[in-house]
Amino acid sequence: MQFELNEQEQSVRDMVREFAKGRIEADKMKYDESKEFPKHLIQEMGDLGLLGIIFPESYGGSNMSYVEYSLILEEISAVDPSMGLTVAAHNSLGTNHIYTFGSEEQRQKYVTHLTSGKSLAAWALTEPDGGSDAISVKTTAKRDGKEWVLNGSKTFITNPNYSDYHVVMARTNPDTGKKGISAFVLETGMKGFKVGKPFNKLGMRASDTAELFFEDCRVPAGNMLGKEGEGYFDAMSILDGGRISIASMCLGIARGAYEHAVRYSQERSAFGKKIHEFQAIKIKLANMATEIDAARLLVH
């Protein structure tokens, strides 16, 4: 079994590490304290191919592997988990749902726009009364001629204030359980669709997280993603890929914490010497490094 990264993977890792250190690290505390999302980085990430990581070049993507995707999220999250979450939600949830289950026309219209850096994508499943439990979706979509009329709300949605397109799960049939949910692409500015103010979160405060509200929001029938009634199953499939993203982010957070601990141990003095010289501290750092390496093998 090959445990070392190949040349391409090393190149991607080094490129993203340089970007994270050079463009994110210096201002990360400012953005966290102000709850301000650094929107100027969206186009920069698009130019680097970070907003189309796992998608084919024919749709403006970078056509990278999931190992490369994991490396990217680890490197960004090691510097700032807020930006790691932004990239993860855009790629593996919002854009990936459109690419995986959308028609060719929808792919050309939406995916090529999203991979370019012109906008982020949002993915809306969670509601005030239910998280990833898609069966409990209460947002409704009722057919009216060539349109669907949506009513309801979503909460804890990532990227909505900086997204042109939002993938929304809604109940199209109240009587069929799992088979009564469908997915739609909503476009920012649609009448009856409103994005709330960002939440004041405990952590990852630079990541845009807000509520969505639908009040008689009319969506063209052509904006349905996939087949009617299959939204639940499609969402579960998308969440599987999303879990790789979360694991990669957590790996980056752990590595960032470890690197901070190492630096502190080299700077802090006690009893006449740097604390990293004490065996008890060395053991703690060694255990941290071992667990991070083991976690990376599990993720990759």
What features would you describe in this structure?
- This protein has 300 residues and is α+β, with helices and mostly antiparallel strands.
- It has one domain: Beta Barrel (Butyryl-CoA Dehydrogenase, subunit A, domain 2), CATH 2.40.110.10.
- It contains 8 helices and 10 strands.
- The chain has helices at residues 7-24, 28-34, 40-47, 66-79, 81-101, 104-115, 231-267, 279-299; strands at residues 120-124, 140-144, 147-158, 163-171, 181-187, 193-195, 209-220, 224-225, 269-270, 273-274.
- The strands form 3 sheets. Strands 1-4-5-8 form a 4-stranded mixed β-sheet, covered by helices on one side.
- Strand 2 (140-144) and strand 3 (147-158) form a beta hairpin.
- Helix 1 (7-24) packs parallel to helix 4, helix 4 crosses helix 7 (231-267) and helix 7 runs antiparallel to helix 8 (279-299).
- The model has no long low-confidence stretch (mean pLDDT 95).
Topology:
Blueprint: H1 7-24, H2 28-34, H3 40-47, H4 66-79, H5 81-101, H6 104-115, E1 120-124, E2 140-144, E3 147-158, E4 163-171, E5 181-187, E6 193-195, E7 209-220, E8 224-225, H7 231-267, E9 269-270, E10 273-274, H8 279-299
Parallel strand pairs: 1-4
Antiparallel strand pairs: 2-3, 3-7, 4-5, 5-8, 6-7, 9-10
